[in-house]
Amino acid sequence: MKQFNTFLILLFVSVFAYAQDATLKGVVFNGETGEPEPIVNVSTEVGGTLTGVQTDFDGRYELNIPPGTYTLTFSATGFGTEEVTKTFVAGDVVTLDVTMEQQAELLEEFVITGGKFEQTVGEQVTSIEVLKPTFVENANSTQIDKAIEKVPGVDVIDGQANIRGGSGYSYGAGSRVMLLMDNIPVLTADAGFPNWSFLPIENLDQVEVIKGASSALYGSSALNGIINLR
Protein backbone atom coordinates (compact mmCIF):
# COMPACT_ATOMS: atom_id res chain seq x y z
CA MET A 1 0.00 0.00 0.00
CA LYS A 2 2.85 2.31 0.87
CA GLN A 3 4.47 1.64 -2.50
CA PHE A 4 1.17 2.33 -4.26
CA ASN A 5 0.81 5.66 -2.48
CA THR A 6 4.38 6.56 -3.42
CA PHE A 7 3.59 5.74 -7.04
CA LEU A 8 0.51 7.97 -6.98
CA ILE A 9 2.51 10.82 -5.48
CA LEU A 10 5.23 10.52 -8.12
CA LEU A 11 2.61 10.30 -10.86
CA PHE A 12 0.85 13.40 -9.54
CA VAL A 13 4.12 15.31 -9.31
CA SER A 14 5.14 14.36 -12.85
CA VAL A 15 1.72 15.27 -14.27
CA PHE A 16 1.73 18.54 -12.35
CA ALA A 17 5.25 19.37 -13.57
CA TYR A 18 4.32 18.55 -17.15
CA ALA A 19 1.21 20.70 -16.88
CA GLN A 20 3.38 23.71 -16.10
CA ASP A 21 4.63 23.72 -19.69
CA ALA A 22 2.66 24.97 -22.66
CA THR A 23 2.47 22.92 -25.83
CA LEU A 24 3.18 24.50 -29.20
CA LYS A 25 2.26 22.56 -32.32
CA GLY A 26 1.41 23.20 -35.91
CA VAL A 27 2.28 22.61 -39.56
CA VAL A 28 4.87 24.37 -41.69
CA PHE A 29 3.91 24.90 -45.34
CA ASN A 30 5.89 25.63 -48.48
CA GLY A 31 4.75 29.04 -49.72
CA GLU A 32 5.30 28.12 -53.38
CA THR A 33 3.69 24.69 -53.54
CA GLY A 34 1.32 24.95 -50.58
CA GLU A 35 2.47 21.52 -49.42
CA PRO A 36 3.73 20.70 -45.90
CA GLU A 37 7.48 21.24 -45.65
CA PRO A 38 9.59 18.61 -43.82
CA ILE A 39 12.85 19.14 -41.93
CA VAL A 40 12.22 22.75 -40.90
CA ASN A 41 14.01 23.86 -37.73
CA VAL A 42 11.71 25.35 -35.08
CA SER A 43 13.77 26.90 -32.30
CA THR A 44 13.69 29.46 -29.49
CA GLU A 45 15.84 30.49 -26.56
CA VAL A 46 14.64 29.26 -23.15
CA GLY A 47 16.59 30.44 -20.12
CA GLY A 48 19.64 31.24 -22.22
CA THR A 49 19.61 27.80 -23.89
CA LEU A 50 18.55 27.23 -27.48
CA THR A 51 15.89 24.54 -27.75
CA GLY A 52 13.81 23.32 -30.64
CA VAL A 53 12.55 20.53 -32.89
CA GLN A 54 12.32 19.69 -36.59
CA THR A 55 9.16 19.15 -38.57
CA ASP A 56 8.43 15.57 -39.63
CA PHE A 57 7.78 14.43 -43.19
CA ASP A 58 4.21 15.75 -42.92
CA GLY A 59 5.47 19.19 -41.91
CA ARG A 60 4.16 18.80 -38.35
CA TYR A 61 5.99 19.80 -35.20
CA GLU A 62 5.33 19.85 -31.44
CA LEU A 63 7.34 21.64 -28.77
CA ASN A 64 6.84 21.81 -25.01
CA ILE A 65 7.83 25.21 -23.67
CA PRO A 66 7.73 26.89 -20.22
CA PRO A 67 5.33 29.81 -19.68
CA GLY A 68 6.56 33.15 -20.96
CA THR A 69 7.04 35.20 -24.10
CA TYR A 70 9.37 33.78 -26.74
CA THR A 71 10.49 34.55 -30.26
CA LEU A 72 10.16 31.41 -32.35
CA THR A 73 12.45 31.01 -35.37
CA PHE A 74 11.53 28.84 -38.36
CA SER A 75 14.45 28.13 -40.67
CA ALA A 76 15.37 25.68 -43.42
CA THR A 77 17.84 25.44 -46.28
CA GLY A 78 16.53 27.27 -49.34
CA PHE A 79 13.95 29.28 -47.38
CA GLY A 80 13.88 32.68 -45.74
CA THR A 81 13.83 32.73 -41.94
CA GLU A 82 10.47 33.36 -40.29
CA GLU A 83 10.19 34.74 -36.75
CA VAL A 84 7.03 34.78 -34.62
CA THR A 85 6.70 36.16 -31.07
CA LYS A 86 4.14 34.41 -28.85
CA THR A 87 3.17 34.44 -25.17
CA PHE A 88 2.54 31.06 -23.54
CA VAL A 89 0.53 30.28 -20.39
CA ALA A 90 1.04 27.12 -18.35
CA GLY A 91 -1.05 24.23 -19.65
CA ASP A 92 -2.05 26.00 -22.88
CA VAL A 93 -2.01 24.17 -26.21
CA VAL A 94 -1.14 26.67 -28.93
CA THR A 95 -1.49 25.88 -32.63
CA LEU A 96 0.76 27.89 -34.92
CA ASP A 97 0.92 27.19 -38.65
CA VAL A 98 3.66 28.93 -40.62
CA THR A 99 4.26 29.41 -44.34
CA MET A 100 7.90 29.46 -45.47
CA GLU A 101 8.88 31.41 -48.58
CA GLN A 102 11.61 29.98 -50.78
CA GLN A 103 14.72 32.10 -51.09
CA ALA A 104 17.33 31.32 -53.73
CA GLU A 105 20.76 32.86 -53.35
CA LEU A 106 23.55 32.79 -55.90
CA LEU A 107 26.87 32.37 -54.15
CA GLU A 108 29.38 33.92 -56.51
CA GLU A 109 33.12 33.31 -56.45
CA PHE A 110 35.31 36.41 -56.41
CA VAL A 111 38.66 36.53 -58.15
CA ILE A 112 41.27 39.24 -58.48
CA THR A 113 43.92 37.58 -60.64
CA GLY A 114 42.46 38.67 -63.97
CA GLY A 115 42.44 42.38 -63.14
CA LYS A 116 43.57 45.02 -60.70
CA PHE A 117 40.33 44.85 -58.72
CA GLU A 118 38.22 42.05 -57.24
CA GLN A 119 35.51 40.82 -59.62
CA THR A 120 33.10 37.92 -59.86
CA VAL A 121 33.86 35.05 -62.22
CA GLY A 122 31.07 36.20 -64.55
CA GLU A 123 32.63 39.64 -64.93
CA GLN A 124 36.01 38.31 -66.00
CA VAL A 125 36.85 38.65 -69.70
CA THR A 126 39.36 35.80 -69.56
CA SER A 127 38.74 32.08 -69.08
CA ILE A 128 39.25 31.35 -65.40
CA GLU A 129 38.82 28.35 -63.10
CA VAL A 130 38.38 28.72 -59.33
CA LEU A 131 39.26 25.82 -57.03
CA LYS A 132 38.10 25.69 -53.42
CA PRO A 133 40.00 23.96 -50.57
CA THR A 134 37.51 21.09 -50.62
CA PHE A 135 38.66 20.27 -54.16
CA VAL A 136 42.23 19.91 -52.94
CA GLU A 137 41.15 17.89 -49.92
CA ASN A 138 39.08 15.51 -52.03
CA ALA A 139 42.03 15.04 -54.36
CA ASN A 140 44.06 13.91 -51.32
CA SER A 141 47.02 15.98 -52.48
CA THR A 142 50.03 16.97 -50.42
CA GLN A 143 51.21 19.44 -53.08
CA ILE A 144 49.10 21.87 -55.05
CA ASP A 145 50.44 20.73 -58.44
CA LYS A 146 48.82 17.29 -57.97
CA ALA A 147 45.41 18.91 -57.52
CA ILE A 148 45.90 21.39 -60.37
CA GLU A 149 46.50 18.51 -62.78
CA LYS A 150 42.83 17.62 -62.36
CA VAL A 151 41.73 20.99 -63.84
CA PRO A 152 40.62 20.59 -67.49
CA GLY A 153 43.28 21.93 -69.87
CA VAL A 154 46.04 21.97 -67.26
CA ASP A 155 48.97 19.51 -67.19
CA VAL A 156 52.02 19.48 -64.94
CA ILE A 157 55.03 17.86 -66.64
CA ASP A 158 58.40 17.67 -64.88
CA GLY A 159 57.11 20.18 -62.34
CA GLN A 160 56.07 22.67 -65.05
CA ALA A 161 52.45 23.74 -65.55
CA ASN A 162 51.18 23.69 -69.12
CA ILE A 163 47.83 25.29 -69.88
CA ARG A 164 45.96 24.26 -73.03
CA GLY A 165 49.07 22.72 -74.55
CA GLY A 166 51.18 25.85 -74.24
CA SER A 167 54.86 25.78 -73.35
CA GLY A 168 55.42 25.57 -69.61
CA TYR A 169 59.11 26.43 -69.46
CA SER A 170 61.76 27.91 -71.72
CA TYR A 171 65.41 27.61 -70.67
CA GLY A 172 66.96 31.03 -70.27
CA ALA A 173 63.55 32.72 -70.21
CA GLY A 174 61.85 30.96 -67.31
CA SER A 175 58.32 29.69 -66.91
CA ARG A 176 55.51 30.61 -69.29
CA VAL A 177 52.91 30.03 -66.53
CA MET A 178 53.10 32.62 -63.77
CA LEU A 179 52.79 31.18 -60.27
CA LEU A 180 51.48 33.63 -57.69
CA MET A 181 50.68 33.54 -53.99
CA ASP A 182 48.32 36.35 -52.98
CA ASN A 183 49.23 38.11 -56.27
CA ILE A 184 52.97 37.99 -55.52
CA PRO A 185 55.18 35.97 -57.93
CA VAL A 186 56.74 32.94 -56.25
CA LEU A 187 58.81 31.58 -59.14
CA THR A 188 62.43 30.99 -58.14
CA ALA A 189 64.55 34.08 -58.68
CA ASP A 190 67.46 32.31 -60.40
CA ALA A 191 65.73 30.21 -63.06
CA GLY A 192 62.08 31.24 -62.89
CA PHE A 193 61.17 27.69 -61.87
CA PRO A 194 58.04 26.89 -59.78
CA ASN A 195 58.79 25.10 -56.51
CA TRP A 196 55.48 23.53 -55.54
CA SER A 197 56.69 22.15 -52.21
CA PHE A 198 57.24 25.71 -50.91
CA LEU A 199 53.53 26.56 -51.20
CA PRO A 200 51.53 26.27 -47.92
CA ILE A 201 48.67 24.05 -49.06
CA GLU A 202 47.28 23.86 -45.49
CA ASN A 203 46.47 27.61 -45.55
CA LEU A 204 44.77 27.54 -48.93
CA ASP A 205 41.60 29.65 -49.39
CA GLN A 206 41.18 29.21 -53.14
CA VAL A 207 43.18 28.69 -56.33
CA GLU A 208 42.58 30.80 -59.44
CA VAL A 209 43.72 29.40 -62.78
CA ILE A 210 43.65 31.75 -65.78
CA LYS A 211 43.78 29.86 -69.07
CA GLY A 212 45.38 32.31 -71.47
CA ALA A 213 47.85 35.13 -71.86
CA SER A 214 47.88 37.76 -69.12
CA SER A 215 51.22 39.38 -69.83
CA ALA A 216 49.73 42.89 -69.72
CA LEU A 217 49.56 42.57 -65.94
CA TYR A 218 52.25 40.05 -65.07
CA GLY A 219 54.87 40.14 -67.83
CA SER A 220 56.31 37.48 -70.13
CA SER A 221 56.10 34.75 -67.49
CA ALA A 222 52.29 34.82 -67.86
CA LEU A 223 52.18 34.19 -71.62
CA ASN A 224 50.58 30.77 -71.10
CA GLY A 225 48.44 31.63 -68.08
CA ILE A 226 48.44 32.22 -64.33
CA ILE A 227 48.03 30.06 -61.24
CA ASN A 228 47.27 32.19 -58.18
CA LEU A 229 47.04 30.77 -54.67
CA ARG A 230 45.09 32.82 -52.13
Question: Can you offer a commentary on this structure?
Answer:
This protein is mostly beta strands and 230 residues long. It has four helices and 19 strands. The chain has helices at 2-19, 133-138, 144-148, 215-218; strands at 22-30, 41-46, 49-54, 60-65, 68-75, 82-88, 93-95, 98-100, 110-111, 119-120, 128-131, 154-157, 160-163, 169-170, 174-175, 177-181, 184-185, 207-210, 225-229. The strands form six sheets. Strands 11-18-19-16-17 form a five-stranded mixed sheet. Strands 1, 4, 7 and 8 form a four-stranded mixed sheet that branches. A hairpin with a 6-residue loop joins strand 5 and strand 6 (82-88). It is elongated, with a radius of gyration of 30 Å. The relative contact order is 0.12.
Secondary-structure topology with pairs:
Layout: H1 2-19, E1 22-30, E2 41-46, E3 49-54, E4 60-65, E5 68-75, E6 82-88, E7 93-95, E8 98-100, E9 110-111, E10 119-120, E11 128-131, H2 133-138, H3 144-148, E12 154-157, E13 160-163, E14 169-170, E15 174-175, E16 177-181, E17 184-185, E18 207-210, H4 215-218, E19 225-229
